[in-house]
Write a structure and sequence with these properties.
The complex is a heterodimer of chains A (151) and B (720). Chain A has 151 residues and is α+β, with helices and mostly antiparallel strands. Chain A contains six helices and five strands; from the N terminus they run ββαβββααααα. In chain A, strands 2-1-5-3-4 form a five-stranded mixed β-sheet. In chain A, β1 and β2 form a beta hairpin. Chain B is α+β, with helices and mostly antiparallel strands. Chain B is 30% helix and 23% strand. In chain B, the strands form eight sheets. Chain B has a seven-stranded mixed β-sheet with strand order 9-10-7-17-14-15-16. A five-stranded mixed β-sheet of chain B has the order 12-22-19-18-13, with helices on both faces. Classes of the chains: A alpha+beta (151), B alpha+beta (720). The interface between A and B is large, with 60 and 60 residues. The structure holds FE2/S2 (inorganic) cluster (2 copies). One FE2/S2 (inorganic) cluster (FES) binds next to loops of chain A.
Chain lengths: 151, 720
Amino acid sequence: MKLIVNGKEHEVMTPGETPLLWVLRDFLGLTGTKYGCGMAQCGACTVHIDDQAVRSCVLPVGAVAGRSVTTIEGLSSAELHPVQRAWIETDVVQCGYCQPGQIMAAAALLKVKAKPSDADIDAALCGNLCRCGTYQRIRAAVRRASEIAGA
Amino acid sequence: MDAFKDVSRRQFFRASAGGAASLVIGFYLPARSILAMAQETAAPAPAKLPSPNAFLRIGADESVTVLLAHSEMGQGIWTTLPILIAEELECDWSKIRVEHAPAAPAYFHTAFGIQMTGGSTSTWSEFDRYRQAGALAREMLIQAAAAQWKVDPKSCRAEEGFVVCGGKKLSFGKLAAAAQKLTPPSRVELKTSKEWKRIGKPTRRLDSREKVTGRAEFGLDVRFPGLMTAVVARAPVFGGKVKSFRAEKAKATPGVKAVVQVPSGVAVVAEHFWAAKVGRDALEIEWDLGPGSELDTEKMREDFRALSQKPGLKAAAAGDVETAMRGAGTKIEAEYELPYLAHATMEPLNCTVKPGRDGCEIWTGTQFQTGDQAAAASVFGLETEQVKIHTTFLGGGFGRRATPSSHFVVEAAHVAKSAGMPVKVVWTREDDMRGGYYRPMWMHRLNAGLGGDGLPIAWRQTIVGQSILEGTPFAKMMIKEGVDETSVEGAADSPYLKAIPNHWIGLHSPRPGIPVLWWRSVGHSHTGFVVESFVDELAGAAKLDPLEYRRRLLKDHPRHLGVLNLAAEKAGWGNPLPQGTFRGIAVHESFGSFVAQVAEVSVEKNRIRVHRVVCAVDCGICVNPSGVAAQMESGVVFGLTAALYGEVRFKEGRVQQSNFHDYPLLRLHEMPRVETHIVASSEKSGGIGETGVPPIAPAVANAVFAATGKRIRRLPLRLA
Ligand code: FES
Ligand code: FES
């Protein structure tokens, strides 16, 4: 089937029920998207489908055939995305494993809400677990990203 | 902490670990046992300067590559060690690159003699070695420049990646080749603390860019041509064995390459994860369960409770508790309980093994390179040096990736060996959650008698829980007369006992057969909760303010008092709070650092909400304040998750929890505001990765008591 990932077209040979996460990681070599739970509990696998944040671990690849998938690798091109810049400035990451998912969730939020309230941030990111407990800096970084994007 | 100084220069604890490989062992040692060791042994060998080549490389392209003897698992050592090198090297910070070192003796822990990361020891144990490596390299670069200019090296200095002399200037990159050929000086002067430019200044992490772009390589991300993925079916109860199995359906799964039996179960090897997982789930296995199927949490609690009525083995004692207790005006008894806990690192366990003709290569996120290397070598019948370990980033460690048994590496080695191909063994979240190696379950029984001034004159504490070290190579030196020091740390050496003339700390170490392991803050994860909750109870019984009560008991402990008073002051202890919000306080020393926390909590419909945590930390010399604050925030979240939610339970031997829906972690909307205040100090650096964890559960429980009048003595905290 045909997949459009980060603007590139790919042909993958796999049963349609294979979760998108494993197609990205094991077939396309895009390992930035992480596996954390496999049941939509942690958000480590968050990618964008047509600009919306979704959990790729529970999404059968067959359901996204022909739609546009963006992964962490495709979030920025020459320059880092404002969310990524804010993350670096705010010194958010620890082990870093959850962060691609956090960043994809934050980027999707800022697309629909350029100036999110605390409640917006809580609602958009409460599905993304961080075992290292970087939440305080994530909140601050989302606010900073909104400033950078607005500047 | 002085004891650390004596031993940190020596490698000790040599023991042989089976086969041809000789494993040098040693791990986090409570100060008390280090002291004992230091006293028992002869004068320390003279300090040897490190070989700078092992720790840094300077490239012709001006890059300065720092090789890390420790694993980056979130704690920030990827940034801390370069700060130490750069402080002395005087390089251009923007040219720093970082790599995990290979597994080799050059990188053995300066105190423990194996390559490992744990016990919150990396910063203090490397404080001299990495600075010395930087200073040696700087001197060699200066010598190389001086030789070229034919001037006295003393007239040259290093500055921002250049050697400078009068108007002359040469870059490190241009000098590197010549400097390489020189013999390192036999001694170097390190800067005094007044001359430090980097140590003590907040520094941003060096691994951010690769981690925010998804390029950072974790064990799970390892890829190369021909690499297969395996998922293993393991026994549903601990100690179970495969009786027989049918693999037809598994083999019929598209993408499955092989099904192999290994000591831990049956592995399905496939072209990619999904095929391996589907294949694994299609295996039909008959298990020989054994006695593990009788494990039951409620039954274990009864057994532990019965044990807690008996004195147990002595961990600490003074005076005559019975007599003092009889004379006490007020007597208090309490029973505290904490459950088994999973580490639940965000990246599930995994290990890649590539067998080869002359050796094997391993890629994994490990905290225990030396042990893993030896263990894999023995699976393949190789010499230790023939096993090459590539340490990837760790998607969280918390102790879970420091396994004395090296079980996840050994298993992957067996799978790769049996399948005869390179294999990455991946644990699903459920496999990881149910795979054991938990923080042990604990029960404490406490009795105290108060004197006329309300302060305790007698304290008896009986601790019941599994030994982490029993059956490991560490038992020999860290279990003394039956007492595993990691079971009683934080209780047997509590500063409160110094003020209590009659005390007894006893220990029972039952053996229910559950694999257990150090879990971020190890023994302090239970003793901190119990001691700091019970002291709060005593304050209540004495009708004294909990802060004031602690001050009186800790009057001879300036560093405890320092953080206690700082946290109280910054939190505005005693000042009114918004309606419905209450404070609790706790202070605990662990791993050479001191942390006090004040939690502001509200309770609504039996739901506990933590709004703000004020944290004061004295970690001695603080290398990177931004990193220390991050670890305090991290420790609070980790400890709060355990305080509010964490529990692994057994029924008919089966672990009842499996994934984040039934083993919840704190989420973003529940995150309290954490404010960290660092005590300025010139004391030796203490640990930081674990020390934020112990005080948060008791601070919250004490606040819940203030809010509701209910004393919760069991974690996770439940009001109904
Ligand atoms: S891996 Fe998809 S939500 Fe956890
Ligand atoms: S940074 Fe480690 S899980 Fe979030």
